[in-house]
């Protein structure tokens, strides 16, 4: 089978964890939806049901909603070679409390939920793998956010983020970075100059 070049990265990544047989490879290939999105393009609007699991070929998506302080802002980023979605909507099949937006021009692959759910009949192990990856990435993002905000000084949290995620920091807007760090655009702008 010839794999669409736009989907190759997805299959290369999944192959690190799971060997798809020829039948499953064809089924998954037929389900996947590749899309280029522009910075600011809404992938999932708050109040909609999630469409599935997203794999980021290239770029960064931001997930926005109410943070731990009850303020609207960027909760986390999903970047190249990561999976993501809005977990509550995905698992409970409810309207999403969060919005997913392209933080920069990006290439994404959607694995529709209905098709992934259908795979339980023929390939329950593959479906479980996808759910496991999604759960682990969700837990990782929550833990990382908690770790980031252990720092009492916002400048230390900012430095920690820049060091750990330079590929995200160079692609997202200062406004998104400030929102993620729970600070005003003005403070963020001043902080950048203090670090130089």
Write the layout of secondary structure elements.
Layout: H1 8-15, H2 22-31, E1 33-37, E2 42-44, E3 52-58, E4 60-66, E5 72-79, E6 83-84, H3 87-92, E7 99-102, E8 106-112, H4 113-122, H5 124-148, H6 154-164, H7 166-169, H8 174-180, H9 185-195
Antiparallel strand pairs: 1-8, 2-7, 3-6, 3-8, 4-5, 4-7
Helix pairs in contact: 4-5, 8-9
Domain Cyclic nucleotide-binding: 16-137
Protein name: Crp/Fnr family transcriptional regulator
InterPro entries: cNMP-bd_dom, cNMP-bd_dom_sf, RmlC-like_jellyroll
Give an account of the 3D structure:
It is a single chain. The chain has 196 residues and is of the alpha+beta class. The protein has a single domain, classed as Jelly Rolls (Sandwich). It is 47% helix and 22% strand. It has helices at 8-15, 22-31, 87-92, 113-122, 124-148, 154-164, 166-169, 174-180, 185-195; strands at 33-37, 42-44, 52-58, 60-66, 72-79, 83-84, 99-102, 106-112. Strand 4 and strand 5 form a beta hairpin. Helix 4 packs across helix 5 (124-148). The protein starts with 7 loop residues before the first helix and ends with a helix. The mean pLDDT is 82.
């Amino acid at each position: 089978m010839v794999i669409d070049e736009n989907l190759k990265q997805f299959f290369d990544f999944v192959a690190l964890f799971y060997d798809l047989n020829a039948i499953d490879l064809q089924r998954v290939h037929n389900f996947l939806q590749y899309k280029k999105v522009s910075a600011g393009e809404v992938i999932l609007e708050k109040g909609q049901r999630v469409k599935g699991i997203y794999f980021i070929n290239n770029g960064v998506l931001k997930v926005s909603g109410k943070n731990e302080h009850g303020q609207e802002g960027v909760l986390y980023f999903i970047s190249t070679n990561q999976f993501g979605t809005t977990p509550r909507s995905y698992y409970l099949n409810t309207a999403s409390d969060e919005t997913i937006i392209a933080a920069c021009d990006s290439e994404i692959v959607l694995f529709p939920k209905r098709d992934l759910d259908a795979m339980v009949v023929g390939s329950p192990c593959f479906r479980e793998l996808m759910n496991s990856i999604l759960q682990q990435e969700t837990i990782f993002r929550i833990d990382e956010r908690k770790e980031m905000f252990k720092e009492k000084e916002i400048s230390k949290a900012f430095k920690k983020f820049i060091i750990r995620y330079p590929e995200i920091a160079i692609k997202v807007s200062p406004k998104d970075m400030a929102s993620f760090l729970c600070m005003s655009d003005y403070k963020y702008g001043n902080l950048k100059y203090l670090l130089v």
